[in-house]
Specification:
The complex is a heterodimer. By secondary structure, chain A is an alpha+beta fold. Chain A contains 13 helices and twelve strands. In chain A, helix 2 runs antiparallel to helix 9, helix 2 packs antiparallel against helix 12 and helix 9 crosses helix 11. Chain B is of the alpha/beta class. In chain B, the strands form two sheets. In chain B, strands 6-7-8-3-9-10 form a six-stranded mixed sheet, with helices on both faces. Chain B is globular, with a radius of gyration of 18 Å. Chain B starts with 7 loop residues before the first strand and ends with a helix. Classes of the chains: A alpha+beta, B alpha/beta.
Chain lengths: ~375, ~240
């Protein structure tokens, strides 16, 4: 039997106590994983909005700075001007308007060129892309599910009938609830032929989006503005910071509770095994080996908790997300964070009991009854 | 003709040990020599200092003053006492002190973790020791499935795990019935002869003490008859 196998076996000697400790720490890990997934999902959604779908940032008219989808317009000729700014790879015009759609008196209609849909983060899950200037729409999957729309159905937009030709799927909440048609059709509906509301900009590979946006602000800042700078300085950034801070605060609480639990379990374990520790000293085990054993046992409990907590946290979030209307995002970072926390709790939780065990004089330990 | 030189396994000179700031004098000037391969019993009433003496011999405790040399090591100056215990000493306690959640064989492997041995080598050595104590077929069961005598036999095998030069047994039959006790003592004596290890038993039972080549009687932290032989013990028992 290897030393590692011995360490793995030991915590389960007192099954009930080990299970209670695992549950305690696993709850902390569930909170960390689930909140991490939700927070990252929200950050991702917000960043999608800031970055205008597949674009790095968007441009709007000067007066529309307080909204990502302002209704004020700029001339479509700005698209060509933006394309000439160094560092810009692609620039696509988009027209976002609030109008009556189906039963909604005011809903967002997004007009985009059919070749610019990728930049607007629209990927067609079912059906096809709309034709230019046709009464055809693509609708977001959440909007389709909420209103029970299928391909081939008709939606009344601003008094005209439009056919649903495609359903899009995206990780962006606002896009998944959106209705899309061609840019020319929106311009036609608004009777505003050369107008657009925003320009989506993608920078060249290796270029810093912020620097390119600054370049545009510097050159054309009197007439237009980049949404990136507005958003970064706005409430959204503060909200994201608050979300992340509260996630960390809850995680810290979970760590403290879990840590106290593991200290208690390991202290009980050392207390009950006093004679055994005396025997281990008598047969020649070094203090380092005894320290390694106790901390190792503590780590076994916290790592098992991390595995169980990560699985439950992930599935709980995935199952509950649709009801909470959120799209969680699970990156390896969340799970690495959960495991690192579990390992830290394991080491800290095992350290004090291990030091207690090491300090036990062997003669006293052997006499213990 | 070649002369066989027998070295001393234990050399103790003026050994003192007290507890509670000198209020309790556990060892009060002990002088003792035990030769390699000898079987010695240490007898004395409770509180006489015999277990303290055994702890000193096993490097579990350090003396206040005096010299103590065991298996060629000066235990007062040696800093790596755990290494010394692992390589030179095999302990047998009154209670078997086996770890309950691992098998009989795995219990015997516990002292081997201090050596750089592969798992297969540890297993091989543990099985050989189990064969020596007559429990080869019980290798893969938990200690709770064994009788008291069998558990103590496992403890003996564990004490021999690292091929020690000295076995220290503290009341090894104290918790066993007389029939089992005799079997355990016979096993210990056989192993002492086969493996040529020095065997030192602490006991307050004259019937156990008389099995040794020599017995040392301890009273109030002092040795009162360091060179008694079996005939003397028998005489004492007869009295």
């Amino acid at each position: 039997m290897s030393f590692l196998k011995f360490i793995i076996k030991n915590p389960f000697r007192r099954k009930n106590s080990a299970i209670m400790s695992i549950i305690g720490i696993a709850i902390g890990i569930i909170v960390i994983v689930a909140l991490g997934g939700i927070t990252d999902g929200l950050i991702n959604t917000f960043e999608d909005t800031i970055h205008a779908g597949g674009a790095d940032f968007s441009i709007a008219g000067k007066e529309t700075g307080n909204s990502a989808f302002g209704t004020n317009t700029i001339d479509s000729s700005w698209t060509d001007k933006i394309k000439t700014v160094p560092g810009v790879d692609e620039a696509y015009p988009i027209y976002v308007v609030l109008t009556s759609i189906g039963d909604d008196y005011m809903k967002t209609l997004i007009g985009v060129n059919s070749n610019g849909t990728g930049l607007a983060d629209i990927s067609v899950k079912e059906g096809r892309i709309f034709k230019d200037n046709a009464n055809e729409v693509i609708i977001g999957n959440i909007y389709a599910e909420d209103n029970d729309y299928k391909i081939g159905d008709t939606i009344k937009i601003d008094g005209e009938n439009f056919e649903v030709v495609g359903i899009s799927e995206t990780g962006d909440q606002s896009m998944a609830s959106g209705v899309f048609t061609s840019l020319s059709k929106v311009q036609d509906l608004m009777d505003n032929e050369d107008s657009i509301s925003n320009i989506y900009v993608k920078v060249k590979k290796g270029e810093d989006a912020k620097k390119v946006a600054d370049r545009i602000d510097k050159k054309y800042g009197d007439d237009i503005q980049t949404i990136t700078s507005v958003m970064e300085m706005g409430q959204m950034a503060k909200m994201l910071n608050m979300l992340q801070a509260s996630t960390w605060a809850i995680s810290l609480l979970a760590i403290i509770i879990g840590g106290l639990g593991i200290i208690n379990t390991m202290l009980m374990s050392v207390f009950e095994r006093t004679r055994e520790i005396g025997v281990l000293k008598a047969v020649g085990w070094s203090n380092t080996k005894i320290l390694t054993m106790i901390i190792g046992e503590s780590l076994v409990i916290t790592i098992v908790s991390a595995i169980i907590g990560s699985i439950i946290g992930y599935y709980a979030c995935v199952i509950l997300a649709p009801y909470m209307k959120i799209t969680p995002l699970f990156t390896p970072k969340i799970f690495i964070q959960a495991f690192v926390i579990a390992i830290i709790v394991g080491i800290i939780g095992g350290l004090y009991p291990a030091i207690k065990a090491v300090k036990l004089p062997p003669t006293e330990a052997l006499r213990y009854e | 003709m070649n002369e066989v030189i027998i070295m001393n396994a234990v050399e103790i000179k003026d050994l003192y040990k007290s507890y509670e700031k000198g209020k309790i004098k556990a060892l009060n000037g002990i002088n003792l020599t035990i030769k390699e391969g000898e079987f010695v019993s240490i007898i004395g009433p409770s509180g006489s200092g015999k277990s303290t003496l055994l702890n000193m011999l096993g490097a579990l405790d350090i003396p206040d003053s005096g010299k103590i040399n065991v298996a060629g090591k000066d235990l007062k100056s040696d800093k790596k006492l755990n290494k010394f215990r692992s390589e030179q000493i095999g302990f047998i306690f009154q209670l078997h002190n086996l770890i309950p959640n691992i098998t009989v064989r795995e219990n015997i492997e516990i002292p081997m973790y201090t050596q750089k041995l592969s798992s297969s080598k540890m297993k091989e050595r543990a099985l050989k020791l189990l064969e020596d104590v007559g429990l080869y077929d019980k290798a893969d069961i938990l200690p709770s499935k064994l009788s008291g005598g069998e558990r103590q036999r496992v403890a003996i095998a564990r004490a021999l795990a690292n091929n020690p030069s000295i076995i220290l047994a503290d009341e090894p039959t104290g918790s066993l019935d007389s029939k089992t006790s005799n079997k355990i003592l016979k096993l210990l004596i056989d192993l002492h002869k086969d493996k040529k290890v020095t065997l030192i038993i602490v006991t307050h039972d004259m019937n156990v003490a008389k099995l040794a080549n020599r017995f040392i009687e301890v009273l109030d932290g002092e040795i009162i008859n360091p060179n008694s032989d079996k005939s003397l013990i028998n005489n004492q028992i007869n009295i």
